[in-house]
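Researcher: Please predict.
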Amino acid sequence: MSLKYWLPVCCKTAVPLTAMVGETAALSNRLLKRFSNKRGGHSGVSLVEAVISIGVLALVIPIVSGALAQAGKCMVVTRAESRSTWMIPACLDEIQASRAARSSYFPATAAGQTFPSADDVWALAFSPEGKTIGKISRTLYDTGTRTLDGHPVRYLAAMTATMAPSCGAPTSMLQVRISLEYPARLPAAHRQKLDFYTLMP
């Protein structure tokens, strides 16, 4: 079998081509192993590290989400409490006006008379800013509403008066409860409530 030779420029001796091919292949293998070792020394994230990271995120995300939701609820409650400083007096004014038969929304009542009747509701609708919009019907109170007479509704204030325990007092008193409910768009059973109580003859 005849051998072919390759003569390098810097060499005067003929070298078998098969020998050069063998040496080239050996050098390539050594370089490939060295390159592989270097890559192995700087490997990416392992499977264990990835699982741990996912576990940490699974614990942190619900905690952060819960904290944000709680902060949102606190903000809503704070806003409702601040609006109540003028919504509750507006309700008391209408109750007092009903005693003098001059209420804009409720029927006339006598001193010591409880309200509302069994099939009625005394409730006023208020805007997001706490301004009085008007009386709301029993149906809208039960189901919830977003608007009334074209105005956005955020809060509802339901009023009831029952006989207060006498506790030996010479004059009977009524216990008045004003329940500030929000958001108005939800059914009555799902709204948040702030209850305010007072006594009146």
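Model: Residues 85 and 130 are 9 Å apart (CA to CA).
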